[in-house]
Amino acid sequence: xxxxxxxxxSLAPLDLRLRHPFKIARGEExxxxxxxxxxxxxxxxxxxxxxxxxxxxESADSVAYYFANNALTSQDPFALETLIDRRIPPAAxxxxxxALYDLLGKRLGVPLYQLLGLDASxxxxxxxxxxxxxxxxxxxxxxxxxxxxxxxxxxxLGTAREQIETVEAIRHHYTxxxxxxxxxxxxxxxxIPILNELARYDIEFCEQPxxxxxxxxxxxxxxxxxxxxxxxxDSLDARDLPVLMGCVDGVNVKLAKTGGIRGALSMIAxxxxxxxxxxxxxxxxxxxxxxxxxxxxPLVDWADIDGPFLTSDDPFTGVQYDHGKLVLPDEPGxxxxxxxxx
Length: 342
Known about the structure:
The protein has 342 residues and is α/β, with parallel strands linked by helices. The chain folds into two domains: 103 residues, 2-Layer Sandwich (Enolase-like, domain 1); 224 residues, Alpha-Beta Barrel (TIM Barrel). It is built from twelve helices and 15 strands. Helix 6 runs parallel beside helix 7 and helix 7 packs parallel to helix 8.
């Protein structure tokens, strides 16, 4: 019989400076604002991270406000169904979810991937993301990543010719896999000719070419483009997937959108049942959230878990990268540790 445990939760701002300004079609940031979760059962502490997405009207302040005004619904860390309530906003729910899984793994003495019955050797290679920049800056960033085997290029701003020339310049210097992401920056009529021009550069897939909420527009693009289409903003959680059948080739699963590990597992299972390929993505975040996502990466086809690459002062260590392949820590829970100051 388990001893009774009293849970206590504390939150703190986690502001992460970026190596370079990170620009996408919706905006630009130089500091990412996360929320650090510490969940204690009186003996052990679980770490979590909320990475709120402004696109969905969430912020570090809204996460803190929620937990300042809502108590935990159980004192039993094993009561996941009760604690990870769907009524909690997604970013706040994800932070709590990650802290709970970290605490449970530590309590049981096993890494999260082992707790979930996954094979750590089957992690995918992750992409490295290049934000929108002028061509000279883009090529300078490209030189910094060395021999990383997969690249994701942000598009969606500027003229069609400027965007095509950006990819052309990258391909001239880079022989690895290229993915592109327009972050809702195009229309249907604009996306089709751009994608058909870009097909000559051997693009693996295009992520979210048009604003969310237009599955038939996605279908029109998919039917008239040689580049596979993957959603992001159109696929927040498992409930969004049935309407996308026949319209896209794959979906991007992010812990910040699904409300954490529990929601991500549901979304991945639903995507598989509907025949979609699956990408596991991330936000600009610390090693806490990125390592949590990496723990379930053996379940997916593609990974875009590069948060630690993009920040300059990550205070934690966790997932490692072997020439782009995700390497999971063997320590209990998420396997994340505070970084020892140099």
